[in-house]
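Before drawing any conclusions, I needed to go through one protein's amino acid sequence and its backbone structure tokens, quoted below without any editing.
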Amino acid sequence: MRQILILGGGFAGLMAALNAADENDRHGGNVAITMVSPSPYLTIRPRLYERDPETLRAPLAPTLGPAGIAFVEAVARTIDTEAHVVRVEDARGAATTKNYDRLILATGSQLGALPVPGVTEHAFNIDNYEGAVAFDCHLQKVLESADIAGHDTFVIVGGGMTGIELAAEMRSRIAVHAGEGLAAKSRVILIEQASVVGPEFGKSPRPVIERALKQAGVEIRLSTTVTKVEANAVTLAGGERIAAATTVIATGMRASPSTGQIAGQRDELGRLIVGN
């Protein structure tokens, strides 16, 4: 029996697995399909900027099981494309190998490292489920602590889709935890190094985006970067120091490091260039 191995349990991995299972059923059922993912859940990642992030994931088993797709909860550590073998490691550190005839790499992307002092220690992100939940817990805590410097100021670094969505949603999220009064008077600051917000979207949607951010009461700082993040402050390239107990990083994405183990051309984001 031939083996299809899918690395990644996000939307791409799930749809690849289900499509493969459907084709397998239609053409004789002589293929075994296995998905490897570090989490047994499908995270609705595009919506992690919303409130109640705990609700934004669903178990994979009820979908994979009926389709006859095996699931392995583990991390793919090494990929040997010549031997057609992947070494995986579970949460306890136990390693096993998975052979394949066809490999589907669907490990997605992750937040690119921002080389700014204090980011690792003091900033938050909504790049994954764990990050989104940690941010929401912080949000509840900081809004209850009026004595904390900058407790009502929220700095979002990165004016792409994620940063725009979070900035536009912030007052609603503040209102959930602290009421409409604090939501109305809080500062929400969006920082973008380009000269325009949403530079990758082009000119056509920009007036709509700018209007929406204005209606949401978002301060936009363009053509600037963050040079330091502290527990209760952010320093900008021009030297301005903003008292803020909440900094969220929403800068550019990079392809999963797993792509580095497969020979081939890559684009500027580390994504493999493949044929049709």
